[in-house]
Amino acid sequence: MSTVAAYAAPAAKAPLERTTIERREVGEHDVLIDIRFAGICHSDIHQAREGWGEAIFPMVPGHEIAGVVSEVGPGVTRFAVGDRVGVGCMVDSCRECDNCRAGREQYCAAGMTGTYNAVGRDGEPTYGGYAQGIVVDENYVLRIPDGLSLDVAAPLLCAGITTYSPLKRWGAGPGSRVAVVGMGGLGHMAVKIAHALGAEVTVLSQSLRKREDGLRLGADHYRATSDPKTFEELRGSFDLMVSTVSAPLDLDAYLSLLGTEGTLVNVGAPEEPVSLNLFSLIGGGRSLAGSQIGGIAETQEMLDFCAAHGIGAEIELIAAAEINEAYERVLDSDVRYRFVIDTATI
């Protein structure tokens, strides 16, 4: 075992505080990573405050991890000391089910092992990236291309893949009309990626407060959902909508914005149930879908794509002592667009 400094929530809804945690010894196929940066995802807040159900405490959140390899196990073939690497939302899966064999480890039939707030296959709780080091099996580690700075790459390990995967799966590209619902940590990445894929991109946000940013990041249009005219004028306008918000939406109103056989994909996960009139789907042959991060191979594909197109997250770099303040600011939508912790300050 080794001991590293970390920030943890000692109990549900409790402020995070500095502590130390134990990491396992580097095994045959393990990689020890010196964490340099860790993004703050809204998922961290949902889980630290038990918004998505009962959680495991103490909890060290963080599944947007970027760092440098400092040690490798004797059987490691993919990485070497000094490599720039990342870790996303999972650190293991069964590796045997149909989904794992197909590269969809996020949908592992036995359940993927989350980077934090989970129990590993060794029976021990997992602790995430708000720490100065982590040990991960090489099969769940990603290579960060040289064209990406580690600080702006960290959020790609969740926000990047969470938006890239549905955009690719549902055909965002030249000639497609894509709407991004929400202009936050996920939404701003969806705008950048959809634009780079060649789609015509519209942001649907509550207000026009971030309009200049949206257009700068690649949106062709920016509309306020607080204006009733938006839903009248854009009816039937989109082939694909990606909802990144974690608040419940009027799904019937948003589905009306899809053209025939269009799809609304949810990647934001509200804590409350939502309602739906099925005629909103039946009438236009529309689809309502969900998407959860991406597999390891697709995540590497996303990182390579972002490096090739010069895409990184828009970040606000903070010291570890500012984590609790950052949580409140995320809830107030007061961040443009991702907080990233400089883990040297832990």
Please bin the fraction of helical residues. Answer: 10-25%
Q: Please tally the helical runs, counting DSSP H or I stretches of 4 or more residues.
A: 11
Shape: globular
- By secondary-structure content and strand pairing, the structural class works out as alpha/beta
Indicate the CATH architecture of the largest domain. Answer: Alpha-Beta Complex
> Can you write the helix and strand succession as a string?
EEEHEEEHEEEHHEHEHEHEHEHEHEHE
Give the terminus-to-terminus CA distance.
20 Å
Mean pLDDT, all residues: 97
> Main sheet, how many strands, which sense, barrel?
7 strands, mixed
Poorly predicted runs: none
Rg, Å, rounded: 20 Å
Please tell me the total number of domains: 2
What is the CATH superfamily of the largest domain? Answer: Medium-chain alcohol dehydrogenases, catalytic domain
Oligomer: single chain
Strand content: 25-35%
EC number: 1.1.1.2
Keywords: Metal-binding, Oxidoreductase, Zinc
Family: Belongs to the zinc-containing alcohol dehydrogenase family.
Pfam family, one: ADH_N
